[in-house]
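Weekly modeling sync, notes
Attendees: S.R. (lead), two postdocs, one rotation student

Agenda item 3: backlog of single-chain predictions. S.R. asked that every request posted to the team notebook include the full sequence so nobody has to chase files. The rotation student volunteered to paste the first one in as an example of the format we agreed on. Action items at the bottom.

Example entry:
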Amino acid sequence: MIKKARESALKIIGALAAAFGMFTAIPAPGFLYQLSRDKNNNKYILCAFPAVGLLIGLSWRVWILLNHWTGFPDILRGAGLCLLPLTITGGIHLDGYADTCDALASYASPARRREILHDPRRGAFAIIKLCAYFIGYFALCTAYDPESVPDSDPDICLILLFIFSRCLSGTALLCFPLSSNQGMAYDLKSGADATAKKVILLESALTGLLLCMTSGGCLMAVTALWDFRRADRIARRDFGGWSGDLAGWFLQKAEFDMLAVWIFARYISNIFL
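Predicted structure, as returned to the notebook:
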């Protein structure tokens, strides 16, 4: 029994190390680095993917507390909240967002759009969309005022936001058709088993349920699911299936839209209360 428990713990640690090694820019210690390079740990890497969202959510909370203690201006708080996800992930999902925006703007055939996704060059539409994304995201982060929402629900909502987007992104890659039989997404899906699919679906359901139990969280969950449905339709129709770039594009859109509806719902409710 002790041996099985040890093996299970190593699998969990290995999956977490692999997820953080692939989806973050955080350098890993030697032992964890070796675990992250073990291909056997890739079986459950997408199940551990939401843990990256937990880290980002907690980093947001720490930054908010630091700003509260120091009295930094709102614009500095917003800048930190805007840049923390990018700093932790290294921009891996924004890369997919930019590539997908370029491909969608081409209005080309699915085959041509897949070629654009793999083109390392950045087109004008990718740059335009990234600039617009950061302006909007920075504005939303600056608009969030922790002092106006003294209850604990906002902290939970903002943590679950980053977890839920990664649960749905992992679900798309593991459970939905892919556009190609090669690349990172294919390797992750082909290396996973039926248990991994069940785990990511369970994680998605539990995170969505927890989100709905918080103030304003139900609206956020519905928004993310709407984006997920729309992204799946676009992936199948315009690309022939999902890919790593499309999963990153969806993740960024879901996080932006969930934060937007939560912020606007708070301001609107304050008007009428």
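Discussion: group reviewed the output briefly. The longest helix spans residues 244-272.
Action items: rotation student to repeat for the remaining queue; S.R. to check formatting next week.
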